[in-house]
Amino acid sequence: MANAGFAAAAVAARGVAALLGGRVGSVVDGQVVEGQGAAIGLDDPATGLPLLGYADAGAAVARQAAAGAARAQRAWIALSAAERGRRIWAFGAAIRAEAEALALLECANTGKPLRDCRGEVARVAEMAEYWAGWCDKVEGRVVSVPSGHFVTVRREPMGVVLAITPWNAPLFTAGWNVLPALAAGNAVVLKPSEYTPLTSAAFGLLAVKAGLPAGLVQVVAGNGATSGEALLGAPEVAMVTFVGGAASGARIAGACAARMIPCVMELGGKSANIVFADADLPAAVQGAQQAIFAGSGQSCVAGSRLLVQRSVHDRFVAMLAEASSRIRLGDPLDGATEAGPVCNARQFAHVRGLVEAGAAAGADVFTAPRGGVPEAGFWVPPTILAGVTNDARVAQEEIFGPVVAAIPFEDEAEAIAIANATPFGLAGAAWTRDVGRAHRVAAAVRAGTFWINGYRTIHVSVPFGGFGASGHGRSSGQEALMAYTQAKAVWVETGVEPALGFGHRPAGVGG
Ligand code: NAD
Fold first, then answer.
1. Active-site positions?
2. Residue 439 has pLDDT above 60, yes or no
3. Among candidates 76, 127, 84, 73, which has minimal Cα distance to 476?
């Protein structure tokens, strides 16, 4: 397959002109600010050719962003809760109005198929609508104490939240982490991946256009080691929410610990997709493809370990290989394309290295897309590594590419044991017609999300996050409001006799 016709650079340039006023940089106090640090070059993932370049924000821009966010947070919390909700709703409408331009820009930058990018932009607008409704429902409570005090517990915002995001779903992850923080009354400094800053910058500008205070959503475009570290040291930052790899996560959690500020960590996974012999096998084949090949496997919840009951293992692997050969690889900007390249050269090298390691260790490699694989660019075809044991590198390390390790098991107990035999605990699934077994396995597998006879669905209203090395904390659903606020207890001395206690006196007794 040739690469002719890929036009990502032109699409990116048009998107930058339409959404960013023609400049790539950070968004500080409502303005695009060009960086002061080293040059960063972005490639078109589909061709490997240069896409565009920009400058790392650097420490001065990072400090300016954090200071501006603190000012904007004071203006934000001074608005009524209902007004904050209306403005977040308007932000969602602004995202909907620019949906196609955002999807095209995301597609050009990440190499993710356009139809997937369109879906992700729509999900971000839905997130804004969901969180808009929560603004005036952040409620406290009254606690009965055995003294004469009236005690209320208020939920107060943290202040400035630093949200650090990865490159695999940049706009989706921005919405996922920024919007609940805003609904809880915070300002956010968003630090997108250096590989994919474009739609995050557009998100920051659209926030201001929609009526959020300038500075409430700051975006700092640049490298982790420079701009990211500068933000971690900014005194205004009161909390960090991080989505990314385990090594960066450990370093960032350490920086938070040193500053005694809380963090939510959403890290990687090595999730087990478990197929029992009694499952609807054609449905499970479709689910297994969704689990690992959607987004070219660059998904934290990817079902990268396919556990198949031994009696159907070889048949299932053959069915999956056949179905996967029909996945349409091609120009990500073509709305019919089903699988794109991986996002960047570093990831391409990482994925290919692990496939080679799997083959060298004796795995049977199945990969044969019928339409071929483009020659240039960062293309990895859907790949099945079969005959793998759970202690192999490809079964233990996150590949973050369209590569699944198929592992046979004998019975339910062994499936659970294998599923739990990695340090990760992000997600998992079981395919079976046995209702009792479905519930037993869901309860026994150590994971923050588990699906029965399905895979991949997540929603802003449902808590999402990891167990073990996959992280801690939850940044969606009602749980997020707890994460993005802190409790303040207010004790009011009422003068009521302490022995009886306030609120403990039966009606009509005493006086
Ligand atoms: P990464 O850890 O390399 O980078 C993530 C972000 O951290 C980037 O913005 C980067 O610039 C920043 N960063 C790195 N070092 C930093 C530092 N010292 N200080 C401040 N910021 C720093 O991850 P990646 O390669 O961009 O993304 C892939 C990883 O993300 C995978 O492991 C994947 O599983 C994970 N991920 C997890 C989830 C989830 O919700 N659990 C979702 C998507 C991706």
1. 266, 300
2. yes
3. 127
